Amino acid sequence: MIQIGEINRLRILRDTDPGLFLGDNEDNEVLLPNRYVPANFQIDDFIDVFVYLDNEERLVAVTDTPYIQRGEFALLRCNAVNEFGAFLDWGMLKELFCPFKEQAYKMKKGGWYLVHCYLDEKTDRLVASSKTNRFLDNSDLSVALYDEVDLIVSHPSDIGMNVIINKQHLGLVFSGDIFKDLSVGDQLKGFVKKIRPGNKIDISLAQIGYRNIEPSAQALLELITDHNGFLDITDKSSPETIKSVAQMSKKSFKKAVGSLYKQRLIRLESNGIYLSSKN
Fold this sequence. Notes:
The chain contains three helices and 18 strands. The chain has 279 residues and is mainly beta. The protein has four domains: 7-62, CATH 2.40.50.140; 73-133, CATH 2.40.50.140; 148-205, CATH 2.40.50.140; 210-275, Winged helix-like DNA-binding domain superfamily/Winged helix DNA-binding domain (Arc Repressor Mutant, subunit A, Orthogonal Bundle). The longest helix has 14 residues, at 213-226.
């Protein structure tokens, strides 16, 4: 079956004046217009194409890869707004439409918005929505405590930053666990720190507990090396200073220092941390 809004691997069936007709194994066909036809091809070759409705509402295949596909989230720029809604740049000739009813906040030309792309089953049109939370579901979790997960930064809250987990669930990184600048649309790794009643998921940007010691120690060792073997912070430095210099909490910093010290990779002085002579 040809999937609208996704990359399809289809077979070249025949060459015609308007372009190549492609097909799947269920006898469905779609046109690849001449502007997308590769310089070299043979009938029965397979080709990867993106399928959607063009400006004339015809099903069409293209070799362009959009910034977002059906079922995905992405940060997109608003190119225009009219009386019906907003039109977003997603890397295709036909812009992605976001109706007013699907806008969490009224979109403005030139603004950037995190959206979800879905298929309007009544029209077969791909549509964007900035009401991203409604496409997330925490009722049946696919993650467990301490799992490494893929994150997309969604929107700020009074207590931290909301994140999309594995394109499925909603999570929260508390302000106290944020040690670097985060912007809406950023994609990064994280770890499940806690699952609270109601399947609310707390996320850490660093590994949890003892799992965090070695990665933090390695990061600190690299930081000291990058600063010519000396870092002018100690365990008596303020949490704010440690966060600014080492991009980690004071607790993680102390664990990292302890790990490196036990391995005799550093020596501790009153004015800071030095690489040991064995380095």
